[in-house]
Design a protein that fits this description.
Elements (H helix, E strand, L loop, with lengths): L1 E7 L8 E7 L2 H4 L2 H41 L12 H46 L5 H25 L9 E4 H14 L4 E3 L6 E4 L1 H19 L2 E8 L2 E7 L6
Parallel strand pairs: 4-6
Antiparallel strand pairs: 1-2, 3-5, 6-7
Helix pairs in contact: 2-3, 3-4, 5-6
Length: 249
């Protein structure tokens, strides 16, 4: 601002007055050179701020990327323990957690493989004994159960060896599958009731789906006192419903 002072002189000294007028003169300062200087200062400040933020957050991004990799691969490489002290401590803690989880998964996988391998011997003996059952219908059911158990053991062994077991999809009538699950449960003395569904053809992985249904029905019987099974089609979906009357989860 430019301060201009006006003095009003009169013959009478007592009537002398002073007036101050403050008139802004920013327009005179906003020259092209000054505007360029301000723009340059702002550009340098923004560039420096962006660089400082990137430098500070880079270790955090590495830690985040390492966590994402570890979520899909337990053998992922550890995160570099660099950066500020707090970030180094977080990276070191993450690496310790990763090593412990890797060892835990390795121990459990080795135990699972050992158990699955040991189960093959009694299954083989049971198959030989089942072949000697005189009742043809019972023999067929026992052999089918043993075959299913052997397939589950084989899938478990393959999983323990990091192999991918991808059961082929087939078109099956889910009504027949549910009838089989309910009949096997009833034969084992479980209180299971099936509402006979209509024909429900669907492309599924039958062994995997049957295992899932058997697990759900077993839990319903064990913790809910019984199971009521029903199925219906709604548009492009098929709903398989297992109801129990337990306390819930």
């Amino acid at each position: 601002y430019e301060k201009v002072i006006y003095l009003a002189q009169t013959d009478d000294p007592e009537l002398e007055k002073v007036a101050i007028d403050a008139a802004p003169t920013l327009g005179s300062l906003m020259t092209p050179q000054f505007a360029a200087y301000i723009a340059a200062v702002l550009a340098v400040a923004l560039t420096g701020s962006a660089w400082a933020i990137a430098l500070a957050t880079r270790p955090l991004r590495r830690l985040s990327d390492a966590a994402d990799r570890f979520g899909t691969d337990v053998n992922a490489a550890p995160v570099p323990e660099t950066g500020p002290r707090e970030v180094k401590q977080a990276a070191a803690a993450f690496n310790r957690m990763q090593r412990r989880l890797r060892q835990f998964v390795f121990d459990r996988t080795r135990m699972l493989a050992a158990i699955s391998h040991d189960l093959r011997t009694p299954l083989t003996r049971m198959r030989l004994r089942a072949e000697m059952v005189a009742d043809g219908e019972q023999r067929a059911k026992m052999l089918a159960d043993l075959q299913e158990m052997e397939e589950m053991v084989g899938a478990t062994l393959a999983f323990a060896r990091d192999e991918i077991v991808d059961e082929a999809s087939e078109t099956k009538d889910l009504g027949i599958l549910l009838t089989t699950v309910a009949a096997e449960a009833a034969a084992a003395g479980q209180p299971v009731v099936l509402t006979p569904p209509d024909a429900l053809p669907a492309r599924v992985r039958p062994r995997a789906l049957k295992r899932a249904l058997v697990n759900i029905v077993d839990n319903a019987v064990r913790y809910g006192g019984g199971a009521e099974i029903a199925a219906r089609r709604g548009g492009d979906e098929i709903k398989i419903i297992v109801v129990d009357h337990g306390p819930g989860v």
